[in-house]
UniProtKB/TrEMBL annotation:
Protein known as: Disease resistance protein (TIR-NBS-LRR class)
Protein encoded by which gene: 25497302
InterPro entries: Disease_R_plants, LRR_dom_sf
BP terms from Gene Ontology: defense response
């Protein structure tokens, strides 16, 4: 209805209408130069059937009120040689130009948005100093782009700058963009230097950089003073990320707001880590996975009091962990097979897990389950009984060379089954804190928060059982965990339920000699060798 109303403005002369949507109308106006000052918007959509069309270079000169120009992947042999200063929004995907010279050194005081994405022939971004009110500039995936005029770094109102996927871009000009909120340079594979930051940029909260050749962050990186999340990942091109040396210029307060740091696959060195940890002292999430260049996690890691999640997956040469943050809840060192026995023992210490909120996973082929797990067994199952109130427990297991697909943990509470495998689980009877794949030859520590459903149970001594299950390649279910070590520790101070957990069926107590029965009731656990429970 609206389009028909606009068409009726000038049924036979499209160039005299206020808006143009239809392909033939737009093509005729741009090819034949029949536009007028009435035109305020041109929106040409992608058309796979269209043939390449010429664009009269002066076709827009008469469009003195043109505000919006959108060309979405339409085949033109050329482009405009002139654009009116009234333009506010210009988007041209798959533009055939090498450089949009029509905006160079000209005043466009109203232009807010400039989008030249996916322009395979674009090699140069010209002088844009005349776009002083520009808020968004995007030239993502312009694979031939080589140079960017320095004026782009001095647009005071620019909020979004997107150069994602410009494969040939080697240098980015310095930036003095106080209004910048989003800066994207991921997959600029040839980019070797992070741009110098010439002023404070307090609106930048999140920086993500994937697959570039940037090897060092400049001192001026501190001008992202309100940064909260930093992701730099993917040095498959052989580079190595370095941080400026820590000195008086770089004090730890600079990045006090950063909580999330992801530096996977950056070839970080042992010398780099202490600097990194001093930059981001208040980090709560740290991912150092897939870094093969460092061998030691330094002792200063223990000074990161807010760190709760630490990922070290596939750090193949990591040998020592010398410090553990006091409030760490999740640690995943999957396939870090160079870890020393002393580091593994430290990761299994009771003090480290006494918060009762931990989920750890790390390789282990030498150490057994520690003695502070009161109840231990070998095989695919372990169980306990509780009296009405659900307890808070730590559950651990070491899977030994099973080579089955997708091992999972199943929870049975008085016959009710819940699968609590690789994904975070919140179910009718409990919550598993974790979302990681279970691995062969690894130790897994889980804190299980069993919600209080005591109103559902009207009898004493409810049976809880954990089972490990796996799947063969042919699909049938199998239990292949005969050599798996399993253990349970009850956090009595959290559960406040002294004496209300048993690791042997309470119904069997009536058949035991009084002396043995009393001993089992007092400790709430079978002693080493008793009934085979702790015999490893």
């Amino acid at each position: 209805m609206g389009k028909e109303v606009v068409r009726q403005e000038s049924p036979n002369k499209p160039g005299e209408r206020s808006r143009l949507w239809f392909r033939d109308d737009i093509v005729n106006v741009l090819r034949d130069n029949t536009g007028t000052g009435n035109i305020e918007m041109i929106y040409l959509k992608y058309d796979s059937t269209a043939r390449e069309t010429e664009w009269d270079r002066m076709a827009c000169k008469k469009m003195t009120n043109l505000k919006t120009l959108i060309i979405d992947d339409y085949k033109f042999s050329g482009g405009p040689g002139y654009l009116p200063s009234s333009l506010r929004y210009w988007k041209w995907r798959f533009c055939p130009l090498k450089s949009p010279s029509c905006i160079s050194s000209k005043e466009f005081n109203y232009m807010k948005v400039l989008i030249l994405d996916l322009c395979e022939y674009l090699t140069h971004i010209p002088d844009v100093s005349g776009l002083r009110n520009l808020e968004k500039c995007s030239f993502r995936e312009c694979h031939s782009l080589i140079t960017i005029h320095s004026s782009i770094g001095h647009l005071n109102k620019l909020e979004i700058l997107n150069a994602y996927g410009c494969l040939e871009l080697e240098h980015f000009p310095p930036l003095q963009l106080p209004s910048l909120k989003k800066f994207e340079i991921s997959y600029c594979e040839s980019l070797k230097n992070f741009p110098e930051l010439l002023c404070k940029m307090t609106n930048i909260k999140d920086i993500k950089i994937y697959d570039t050749s940037i090897e060092e962050l400049p001192y001026s990186f501190q001008n992202f003073s309100e940064l909260q999340r930093l992701t730099i990942s993917g040095y498959d091109l052989g580079g190595k990320l370095r941080f400026p040396k820590y000195n008086d210029k770089m004090n730890s307060i600079v990045f006090s707001n950063v909580e999330h740091v992801d530096l996977r696959n950056n070839n970080l060195s042992d010398e780099c880590l202490p600097i990194l940890l001093k930059w981001f002292v208040n980090v709560t999430f740290l991912d150092l996975s897939e870094n093969d260049n460092f061998t030691i996690l330094p002792e200063c890691l223990s000074e990161c009091h807010h760190l709760k999640q630490l990922y070290l997956k596939n750090c193949n040469f990591l040998e020592e962990i010398r410090g553990i943050p006091p409030n760490l809840e999740r640690l995943f060192a999957d396939e870090c097979y160079s870890l020393s026995s002393s580091s593994i023992r430290m990761l299994m210490s009771q003090k480290l897990h006494e918060s009762g909120c931990t989920h750890f996973q790390f390789p282990n082929t030498t150490e057994r389950i520690p003695d502070w797990f009161e109840h231990q067994s070998r095989g695919e199952t372990i169980s306990f009984w509780f009296d009405k109130e659900l307890p808070s427990i730590s559950f651990t297991f070491i899977i030994i060379r099973q080579h089955c697909m997708n091992p999972t943990v199943k929870l049975f509470v008085d016959g009710y089954e819940k699968e609590i495998g690789c994904d975070e689980f919140t179910g009718e009877f409990g919550e598993l804190v974790g979302d990681e794949t279970l691995l062969d030859n690894h130790t897994t520590f889980l804190h299980i928060k069993l919600e209080d459903y005591s109103v559902k149970f009207f009898k004493r001594w409810i049976h809880v059982e954990f089972k490990l299950w796996g799947y063969l390649w042919l699909g049938e279910v199998t239990r292949l965990f005969r050599n798996t070590q399993m253990g349970i520790h009850v956090w009595k101070e959290k559960s406040n339920m002294e004496g209300s957990v048993r690791f042997i069926d309470p119904s069997l107590l009536q058949f035991m000699p009084p002396q043995k029965k009393q001993r089992l009731v007092e400790v709430g656990v079978s002693e080493k060798g008793e009934e085979g429970f702790r015999r490893m």
